[in-house]
From TrEMBL, chain A:
The active site is at K78, S158, S182. The gene is gatA. It comes from Amphiplicatus metriothermophilus. Pfam families: Amidase. Allows the formation of correctly charged Gln-tRNA(Gln) through the transamidation of misacylated Glu-tRNA(Gln) in organisms which lack glutaminyl-tRNA synthetase. The reaction takes place in the presence of glutamine and ATP through an activated gamma-phospho-Glu-tRNA(Gln). SUPFAM superfamilies: Amidase signature (AS) enzymes (SSF75304). This is Glutamyl-tRNA(Gln) amidotransferase subunit A. InterPro entries: Amidase, Amidase_CS, Amidase_dom, AS_sf, GatA. GO terms for biological process: translation. It is an enzyme of class 6 (ligase).
UniProtKB/TrEMBL annotation, chain B:
Keywords: ATP-binding, Ligase, Nucleotide-binding, Protein biosynthesis, Transferase. Heterotrimer of A, B and C subunits. It catalyses: L-glutamyl-tRNA(Gln) + L-glutamine + ATP + H2O = L-glutaminyl-tRNA(Gln) + L-glutamate + ADP + phosphate + H(+); L-aspartyl-tRNA(Asn) + L-glutamine + ATP + H2O = L-asparaginyl-tRNA(Asn) + L-glutamate + ADP + phosphate + 2 H(+). Allows the formation of correctly charged Asn-tRNA(Asn) or Gln-tRNA(Gln) through the transamidation of misacylated Asp-tRNA(Asn) or Glu-tRNA(Gln) in organisms which lack either or both of asparaginyl-tRNA or glutaminyl-tRNA synthetases. The reaction takes place in the presence of glutamine and ATP through an activated phospho-Asp-tRNA(Asn) or phospho-Glu-tRNA(Gln). GO terms for biological process: glutaminyl-tRNAGln biosynthesis via transamidation; regulation of translational fidelity; translation. The lineage of its organism: Bacteria, Pseudomonadati, Pseudomonadota, Alphaproteobacteria, Parvularculales. The gene is gatC. It comes from Amphiplicatus metriothermophilus. This is Aspartyl/glutamyl-tRNA(Asn/Gln) amidotransferase subunit C. It comes from the Bacteria. GO terms for molecular function: asparaginyl-tRNA synthase (glutamine-hydrolyzing) activity; ATP binding; glutaminyl-tRNA synthase (glutamine-hydrolyzing) activity; transferase activity. InterPro entries: Asp/Glu-ADT_sf_sub_c, GatC. It is an enzyme of class 6 (ligase).
Length: 492, 99
């Protein structure tokens, strides 16, 4: 086979089953690609020995005609998922040296199904960021560049290592997590497919917690079918996570073959922001036409509270984060400051040196909005507005089956372009954050290129636990878009 | 609501983050900027709305109150302290608290 790394996950899976390639060959091909792509900084830790060992075990099972749905398929794992014995950093200095003595439920599901781990993918620190620039390990560089340009662009965040690695063929697919858009925004910026399932679809056990009522795991993959295969293996009930829902996991791949005819597609007029490039309007309108041509019924809808979703998020998420991150105190794991005078200053110095600026900013906001006298004015009010946003979606989904929006208000931007103003950076998630607040499934599918040759994505939102209809819609968009573009491999 | 330097000092102490004196003023400006942007929530009518407490409509699951097997179970002190910066005989070691 010419280049194994060019096969989609589905094609690799089939080639492995047919014994046309071995898992060890596929694993070596990806390890070689990772080695050549150091300039992208997509991995924090590569685990070549573990990868080869897992690949050999997969090959032994495949030789006997055994093996799970992902047998022998090499994957990248976002460094937010605890992996037994392998460093897990969450992109933070404060978890320096931490090797979990346990495996996250999502990654355990992937290994159960036969997948091979290549290593741990870079990300914004504690998943707080939209450009991968808050990582203690430095930003990931987007494999895509502007036509004729050579400046480094962001692969999005927080799952920037996942999106860049998938786009640059450094793994067959990757795990990611999404608290406000951290799967869908990076997917949109790298021409990949990202799926955030319904809250509760995947177990959060063993995933380093950011904002527990919003965090949800999902895949970033090269196409819609690959994402469907990944999600089926990742999802499932888990006695270790009381919010993981006890329902059977459907065969999402089967949903791709369903006809989109007759699906009612809501188009919300509020998914626009000031200064949004005209090309994004155009590609959105194009998406509407594609689904109309596929036999869907287009319904104009209104979600007037959309603009309040981000401010709600920037109360709820920091509040939950300030509580979740209280555990990093230099006592039980990770980094401890070298110099301090007593217990209190050990905590304060450890956290001052261990956390980066954005994480500290959010912990301070969260601590403030939860502090005595401000709880009602901020947190309680935010949770009430959140309920109204949720109700607005429930009403809309009484009339439509899916909602179509742009994934992001812009294409990939330059590293350093938005770091000066936190609120400008936050606005990246304006179209994605609503799904997290309401717990809905959402996905980004590559739809085309802008005039600079950079990918743009379209987002579909669905009813809770109706990922199947979402996949049917995604497949229709993918087919119509015929997105085949790939970044020029300038990185070597 | 604008946050002043003293409030930042107080909140940083509550959050157990050492912020040097010269960072307090810039942080007060940054946080005030973010909270100012958040103030737009005051435009939304929330009269009679119940706060959202769960993203998914489900009953919290219960389980038997027994020691579990595996990673959430007991009897594995070596694993519990394996990642600690300083330990002694399966205890976490911190600076002296009581004189």
């Amino acid at each position: 086979m010419n280049d194994i790394a060019d096969l989609t996950l589905a094609a690799l899976r089939d080639a492995l089953k047919a014994k046309k390639v071995s898992s060890l060959e596929a694993t070596q091909a990806y390890l070689a690609n990772i080695e050549k792509a150091k300039a992208l900084n997509a991995f924090i830790t590569v685990t070549p020995d573990k990868a080869r060992e897992m690949a050999k075990a997969s090959d032994a099972r495949l030789a006997k005609g055994e093996g799970g749905p992902l047998e022998g398929v090499p994957l990248g794992i976002k460094d937010l998922f605890c992996t037994e014995g392998a460093p897990t950093t969450a992109g933070s200095r404060i978890l320096d040296g931490f090797r979990p003595p346990y495996e996250s439920s999502v990654t355990a599901n992937l290994w159960r199904d036969g997948a091979v781990m290549l290593g741990k993918l870079n990300m914004d620190e504690f998943a707080m960021g939209s450009s991968n620039e808050t990582s203690y390990y430095g930003p990931v560089v987007n494999p895509w560049r502007k036509k004729g340009g050579n400046s480094d662009l962001t692969p999005g965040g927080s799952s920037g290592g996942s999106s860049a690695a998938v786009a640059a063929r450094l793994c067959a697919a990757a795990t990611a997590t999404d608290t406000g858009g951290s799967i869908r925004q990076p997917a949109s910026l790298t021409g990949t497919v990202g799926v955030k399932p319904t809250y509760g679809r995947c177990s959060r056990w063993g995933i380093v917690a950011f904002a527990s009522s919003l965090d949800q795991a999902g895949p970033i993959a090269r196409d819609v079918r690959d994402a469907a295969i990944m999600l089926r293996s990742m999802a499932g009930c888990d006695p270790k996570d009381s919010t993981a829902v006890d329902r059977p996991v459907p065969d999402y791949e089967a949903a791709l073959a369903r006809s989109p005819k007759g699906l009612r597609i809501g188009v919300p007029k509020e998914y626009r922001v000031e200064g949004m490039p005209e090309e994004i309007e155009r590609i959105w309108a194009q998406g509407v036409d594609w689904l109309k041509d596929a036999g869907c019924e287009i319904v104009e809808i209104s979600l007037p509270l959309t603009k309040y979703a981000l401010p709600v998020y920037y109360i709820v998420a920091p509040a939950e984060a300030s509580s979740n991150l209280a555990r990093y105190d230099g006592v039980r794991y990770g980094f401890r400051a070298k110099e301090y005078k007593d217990l209190l200053s050990m905590y304060e110095e450890t956290r001052a040196q261990g956390f980066g600026d954005e994480v500290k900013r959010r912990i301070l906001i969260g601590t403030y909005v939860l502090s005595a006298g401000y709880y009602d004015a901020y947190y309680l009010r935010a949770q009430k507005v959140r309920k109204r946003i949720f109700d607005e979606f429930v009403e809309a989904f009484g009339r439509v089956d899916l909602i179509l929006t742009p994934s992001t208000p812009s294409a990939a931007f330059a590293l350093g372009e938005k770091t000066a103003d936190p609120v400008q950076m936050y606005l990246n998630d304006v179209f994605t954050v609503t799904a997290n607040l309401a717990g809905l499934p959402g996905a980004s599918v590559p739809a085309g290129l802008d005039r600079d040759g950079l990918p743009l994505g379209l987002q579909l939102l669905a009813r809770p636990f109706d990922e199947e209809t979402m996949f049917t819609g995604m497949a229709a968009l993918e087919k119509a878009a015929g997105f085949k573009a790939r970044p020029e491999p300038w990185w070597g | 609501m604008a946050i002043d330097k003293e409030t930042v000092r107080k909140v940083a102490r509550l959050a157990r983050i050492a912020e040097p004196e010269q960072r307090l003023e810039p942080l007060a400006r940054e946080l005030s900027g973010i909270l100012g942007w958040i103030e737009q929530l005051n435009e939304v009518d929330i009269e009679g709305v119940e706060p959202m407490t769960s993203a998914v409509d489900m009953k919290l699951k219960m389980r038997e109150d027994v020691v579990q097997d595996g990673p959430t179970g007991g009897g594995q002190p070596e694993k519990i302290v394996a990642n600690a910066p300083k330990t002694e005989d399966h205890f976490f070691v911190v600076p002296k608290v009581v004189e």
